[in-house]
Design goal:
By secondary structure, this protein is of the alpha+beta class. The protein is 48% helix and 17% strand. The protein has seven helices and six strands; from the N terminus they run αββββααβααααβ. A four-stranded mixed sheet has the order 3-5-1-4. Helix 3 runs parallel beside helix 4. The longest helix is centred in the C-terminal third of the chain and has 22 residues. It is globular. The protein starts with a helix and ends in a 5-residue tail after the last strand. 34% of the residues are buried.
Length: 192
């Protein structure tokens, strides 16, 4: 029904609720139905025609930042990403902050690749150094400096080919994505 409202809706971001928390708990991109610039893969629906136009998730991303990549491509192609928190996607509460070198490598590498591959020069020169520095401090907090170094070396080794093949999106797509990136709304169980 949401997709039928507007053929420009490419992604519907739903509320992710956890079985142990009940129907009134969980997290969503917003409290009301509205346009957003991000989504979470495990709690979203994607329009097939959008994927045919933008391509799917990057094949070399195993985990982390693949949604950012696709969100930027969708926004650049003129598609909308909408938050529909009234639609609930039940998902077990998994994951956490434990250290896993393979996961941390992807955690640090993939956002750098998104920035290099898709950000226009007007954003690239500001956000790539900022991302490198913030990843460094994040790796110190996570005690995963080795994974960070491996990720950075990998990105630097890929940089010549990445710069040749990059397909930057419009600045407006990046602006919308960055405004919405940290907009999770946490829903609490209500006792009333």
């Amino acid at each position: 029904a949401v997709f039928r409202q507007d053929e420009r809706i490419g992604v519907v971001a739903m509320r992710q609720s956890f079985p142990e928390g009940g129907v009134n708990a969980g997290r969503a991109m917003s409290r009301t139905f509205q346009d957003v610039g991000v989504f979470v893969g495990c709690a979203s629906a994607l329009r097939r025609s959008m994927l045919q136009q933008t391509g799917a998730f990057p094949a070399d991303f195993f985990l982390f930042a693949e949604e950012s990549y696709l969100a930027l491509r969708a926004l650049d192609a003129g598609y909308r990403i909408v938050s529909a928190p009234e639609i609930i996607m039940w998902h077990p509460h998994i994951g956490g902050s434990h250290i896993d070198n393979r996961r941390d490598y992807q955690l640090f590498r993939n956002p750098l690749l998104v920035t290099l591959r898709l950000y226009p020069l007007s954003y690239l020169w500001r956000y790539l150094p900022a991302r490198i520095v913030s990843n460094f401090f994040h790796s110190l907090r996570r005690r995963s400096l080795l994974s960070y170094c491996r990720a950075l070396i990998s990105v630097l080794a890929e940089m010549p080919m990445t710069l040749i093949t990059r397909k930057p999106v419009r600045p407006a797509a990046v602006a919308m994505h960055l405004r919405a990136r940290d907009s999770w709304v946490i829903f609490k169980n209500s006792k009333s």
